[in-house]
Amino acid sequence: MDFLRPDTLAEALTLKAQRPDAVPIAGGTDVMVELNFDHRRPAALLDLTRIAELRAWEVAGDEGRGGTVRIGSGVSYTRIIEELGERLPGLAMASRTVGSPQIRNRGTVGGNLGAASPAGDTHPVLLVADATVEAASTRGTRLIPATEFYLGVKRNALEPDELITAVHVPATGAPQQFAKVGTRNAMVIAVCSFAVALHPARNLVAAAVGSAAPTPRRASAAEEFLSAELTSTSQWEKPKPLLDSVKRRFGALVAEAASPIDDVRGSAAYRKHALSVLARRTLDWAWHDYTEKVA
After folding, report:
1. Measuring CA to CA, which residue among 46, 27, 166, 34 is closest to residue 106?
2. Which of 49, 74, 264, 271 has the fewest CB atoms within 10 Å distance of its CB?
3. 36 CB contacts (<8 Å, ≥6 apart)?
């Protein structure tokens, strides 16, 4: 196995163009597991840890309105929690649930996207935040909406010569929540996960499920139901406690959006039930936050 170590992004893109079979590695928290268990043996590894621009983040656009945060693909979960927690609360919540402190020091959102595991913790948050994935090659750079990035189990929309260079996440300043269920409270792969984001400027609610389908996905029917309910009752302007019937309907529609399987971590029926509970619970938290902001 060849080990390629570029010093700059330009060198990395050239190497990836020459060796499309090279597997990118940054934190190594996914790739090294697969190597150690001999699940795959790539012809080459492309080490991205020397590339400084992949470890930077910046805010573009109108900062007064939050702007959009461009997070380099090599920024660790720990830095997202510590440096971006106020701007991107949902992503920070998801990052806190990733592995141990050592894993969070090494692991990156770029790696999570590259692995494209249905159980990846950050995926539901990126979906509800309307994030876009920045992919680069020697041919140029393009932005891929998160909703179009996940193509199947561990498959994404990258071309063989492309690298993930960043993810762009709007900082809306509105409430976001994330929760997951595992076999214990920490250091586990999600049995299922859920994220919700309120977008009061557009009178919209966004919801997404993880680890409950071949890919993470938006719960569109649940989003449309709740957005219409809040708009028709003028609750964006004058929020009040949500009716239990509304929360239950929202939870049921979220569960319907999933198409889970039975596996060693949980049954399909359990995942659907857990998602309906997570949806009601996180909606309650987000709506409480919104009510306090408006009051």
Report:
1. 27
2. 264
3. none
